[in-house]
Amino acid sequence: MSAYRTHTCADLREGDVGETVKLAGWVHRVRDHGGILFVDLRDAFGTTQCLADPDSPVFAAVEKLRAEACIMIEGSVKARDAEFVNEKLATGAVEVFIRDLEVLGPVNGDLPLQVFGDQEYPEETRLKYRFLDLRREKMQRNMALRSDVVRDMRERMWGRGFREFQTPIITASSPEGARDFVIPSRLHPGRFYALPQAPQQFKQLLMVSGFDKYFQIAPCFRDEDPRADRSPTDFYQLDMEMSFVEQQDVFDTIGPVIEGVFSAFTEKKVDPSAEWPLIPYAEAALKYGTDKPDLRNPIEMQDVSEHFRGSGFAIFASLLEKDGTEIRAIPAPTGGSRKFCDRMNKYAQEQGLPGMGYIFWRDGADGLEAAGPLAKNIGPERTEAIRQQLGLASGDAAFFLGGKASDFEAVAGRARTVIGEELGLVDADRFAFAWIVDFPMYEEGEDGKIDFSHNPFSMPQGGMDALASDPLAVKGYQYDLACNGYELVSGAIRNHRPEIMFKAFELAGYDEAEVRKRFGGMVKAFQYGAPPHGGCAAGVDRIVMLLASEEAIREVILFPMNQRAEDLMMDAPSAPLPGQMMELGLRVVEKG
User: Fold this and answer.
1) Which residues lie closer than 8 Å to 582 by C-beta, 6 or more apart?
2) Local structure of residue 447 (DSSP, 8 states)
3) What is this structure's pTM?
4) Residue 365: is its pLDDT beyond 80?
5) Residue 109 and residue 127: Cα distance in Å, rounded?
6) What is the rounded CA–CA span in Å between residue 252 and residue 150?
7) What 3-state class would DSSP assign to 329?
8) Please, where are the H alpha helices in 492-539?
9) Handedness of CA 126, 131, 133, 138 (dihedral sign)
10) Residue 290 in 3-state DSSP?
11) Where are the alpha helices (DSSP H) in 209-280?
């Protein structure tokens, strides 16, 4: 294979017994068994057991080996005695008697973390010494999975007639829902480039340029607050765009690709893409409390306001006298015990709400009876009507939250998740997908101003006529693909008509001059025969995270930032050199 090895550490088998071989890799561990030294030698492919006894010419050198030293050995392959065969290793039937040894890369000092074993280390240590952390079996497996998933995505996209193009990394700022990373220009003092939050404008310009289909595995840069399933600086997505398509055409194209990727890399059940439901945003918010529902959980929330209107439960009855309020129920099949209900009420309080009312049903002396404070306040008829609406029975419960949906909906969604998990209702061996559609184009901020709620370049449903009505009532041709509680894909049918674009941005507070200034290239392009087009982007990191059964996205990124957006290994961000600042005509001004 090379001057350093004739085989990898995963190659040797019984058929190689008697051969002289060279292996190179890292010392996984050294064991002393009664004067015989065993070295588990590891490379990227596997592990081979090597040994040296006192008769070996390099015995003294083997004694000095430290874990994680990089070495090359030469020796003869021997068969292991039957009782010592290791069935867990591909090379477990053989071992190599070491006759020569060279230390290619010694270890100086104590290891900050051990590669052998499954010890847990603080994230700070793991990220600071990521090059060691990545040697661990789980991390090697995760990164190999990531590489394989990206290759599989590319092959599937090429197989569907797409060509791969690369779009610029340094570009202009664009409002796409997050803060830009800006880059000062040396050649144009006082002016700045931006790293692209996504290839949004460029992929649309590709469609205007006459390319029928496009994709790339695109790096995206967003200055965002970190969370478990999101990197605070950069991420990768499978980006695609198509001309002459409607929403369903995009679904029919990307759906089989995502389904195929998941099916190729998991043994869990993968819902077929032809059966993925289309759920309007408003329905998702009502039933699941989120626009990325986990459909493995069968619980669906319902509006039960009418059962509390004018009831003896004054808190809910008075709430319903105010505009824009409702009472929502979270069914809890098999959750009908006071202990469980009290625990969930405490959960709601921990989430910042006053609590959750509840009713649970049980068998009584005269048949089915309802229990709990709410049941006593609203009476048997209303309680029975609620039970029938929710389809509940003896041993079941329901939880209730009230007010404006915006005040409690997110907590209700999280409570639904916790209830489903604690009651064992979630099908953990399944990937369940749903297209979320009919997103509102606009949202109202706390200051009362109207702004885009999703992608600003989306086509409003109804075109120009829709923009003449209440902006908060306008829906866009925007869509997300949710899977197991995560957003995996986001996209839209694009707004390719300049007059509609100007009006859409005007409602969000951007006049025509501002639109032309910020998106001049796209505005010009749309005046010269722009085709209808649309597309989407799938989060590569998040897909791999789900396939690897990880809960933190950093576990599937080679060199991630920490929760403070710091690279502890490379010491970034760092202070610029004075010469760099002078060259750019910049200086740092302390905040405050």
Assistant:
1) none
2) T
3) 0.93
4) no
5) 19
6) 20
7) strand
8) 498-507, 512-518, 520-526
9) positive
10) coil
11) 247-265
